[in-house]
Design goal:
single chain, alpha+beta, 47% strand, Nuclear transport factor 2 family protein, NTF2-like_dom_sf, SnoaL-like
């Protein structure tokens, strides 16, 4: 049974699983910050470039398996399977929401 995720987070995972990366501006605020592997990606262009680089480097799929919501913070635990070293892995995606968009995302 699929999890019930806030719309922008659902869009984010759709993009992670192959949907059009250009739609990333529809789920992130203009000044959003993504932290992944210790690197910071700020704003639509940087976040889009980060997604394109990750998707170019590896074939993978992300399956959310648990969601915890506390106010505007949503933490999604996901199984990530692909052709990268260490696959499969379980990652936590910690989202901060502002209105109907993602303002922060930290992947650990």
């Amino acid at each position: 049974m699929p999890l019930s995720l806030p719309h922008p987070i659902s869009v984010y995972f759709s993009i992670s699983n192959g949907a059009d990366i250009a739609t990333i501006k529809h789920c992130f605020t203009a000044d959003a910050v993504v932290i992944d592997e210790g690197k910071i990606h700020r704003g639509h262009a940087a976040i889009e470039a980060w997604q394109r680089a990750v998707q170019a480097a590896f074939d993978y799929s992300v399956e959310p398996i648990q969601v915890l919501t506390k106010g505007n913070r949503v933490t999604v635990t996901s199984n990530v399977v692909g052709n990268f070293p260490g696959s499969p892995v379980v990652l936590k995606h910690a989202f901060g929401l502002v209105g109907d968009k993602i303002n922060t995302l930290e992947i650990v």
